[in-house]
Amino acid sequence: MDKLPKIALPTILLIIVAIILVSKSAIVIGSGEAGVLYRTFGEGVVLDEPPLGAGFHLVAPWNKVFIYEVRQQEVFEKMKVLSSNGLDIQLDASAWFQPKYEALGRLHQEKGDQYKERILLPAIRSAARSVVGRYTPEDLYSTKRDAIQKEIFEETKRIVDDQYIQLNEVLVRDVTLPSTIKDAIERKLRQEQESLEYEFRLVSADKEAQRQIIEAQGKADANRILSASLTDKILQDKGIEATLKLAESPNAKVVVVGSGDSGLPLILGNN
Length: 271
What we know:
Blueprint: H1 4-25, E1 26-29, E2 33-39, E3 44-45, E4 55-58, E5 64-69, E6 73-82, E7 88-99, H2 104-110, H3 115-132, H4 137-141, H5 145-160, E8 165-176, H6 179-229, H7 232-247, E9 253-259, E10 265-270
Antiparallel strand pairs: 1-4, 2-3, 2-5, 6-7, 7-8, 9-10
């Protein structure tokens, strides 16, 4: 019994030391995150192993783990750029991105955890200035915005692709023009719309006139064909047919008194 305290004390001390070591060594990485291991007494950033995934990890207390978010993120940027004719344009854009998972160690070693500010945002600004400088304010305000957005994405992606950043999309959220330029563009667009509507009415009126001419020509051709087909024999037959129908009418008494020049009987009736 006298020896128990002497044995128990070192054991308790070892347990305490073990708890401290475990608490210092335990690393929990959350969902959507990954860890870059840094070996203090080794080669530094570990590049020949994949990043530490989500979950619980034990790491030597003298080593470090740098945690990065690896799910898709969004960054916003407001910038002033120049159009092709030198006018100031304010552009609001955002980018969807994430670090390349397998290259996370190299991203940490070469770029650091401030890679968004050091690499991504300057790339977006550079691409936006380059692309917008090829277009006029009218293009930015109306028809070419989708094409401009696509070009900014492609140019930004080309810049960051070898910087261990995966760019998923660039969105142009708003384009702000000087008020005088905006008003002038809106007036021009209204005038163009009115001109298109007027041209449409002219084309419609011309088509209607053509339709009426064709219809009238068709009727004239039909009448000419009908007149040519009405020979004296046909007219005489029609006259006889009409005379017989008239003679059969109960409301008239018919008397034949002779014949006309065409040989048809003359009908006199009294009521």
